[in-house]
Design brief:
It is a single chain. The chain is mainly alpha-helical. The chain has 2 domains: 4-77, 434 Repressor (Amino-terminal Domain); 85-110, no CATH class. Helix 1 (4-18) packs across helix 5 (63-77) and helix 2 (23-30) packs across helix 4. 65% of the residues lie in helices and 0% in strands. It starts with a helix and ends with a helix.
Length: 110
């Protein structure tokens, strides 16, 4: 069973470690205690949306990108392949909601 807080914590830790930053640095920038950030990264605490936003800002990573990575990991764990692009049938269906030049381009999509 996938636990969302574990996946969120894993992604946040991966981003922080790839940046070569310490828990102390990120917790200071995010204005959250080091212990709490550690618990979030280990999946022991369920972080609020406000806290996640603050941590992502401290990591200089858009919240949407972090959540996309979490979503991809959850889908993978569930054995679901998620396309990176919008399927062409949706592009054509919703083309009327875009400016005319974009709608023409979307309608041409095979």
């Amino acid at each position: 069973m996938v636990v969302l807080r574990h996946e969120i914590g894993d992604v946040l830790r991966d981003v922080r470690q790839r940046q070569g930053r310490t828990l102390r640095e990120v917790s200071h920038s995010a204005r959250v205690s080091l212990g709490y950030l550690s618990e979030v990264e280990r999946g022991q605490k369920e972080a609020s949306s406000e806290l996640l936003s603050s941590i992502c800002t401290a990591l200089d990573v858009p919240l949407s990108l972090m959540l996309r990575e979490v979503s991809d990991r959850v889908a993978s764990a569930e054995g679901i392949a998620i396309p990176d692009t919008v399927p062409s049938e949706f592009s054509r269906e919703f083309a009327r909601e875009f400016p005319d030049d974009m709608a023409r381009d979307l309608a041409r999509t095979p």
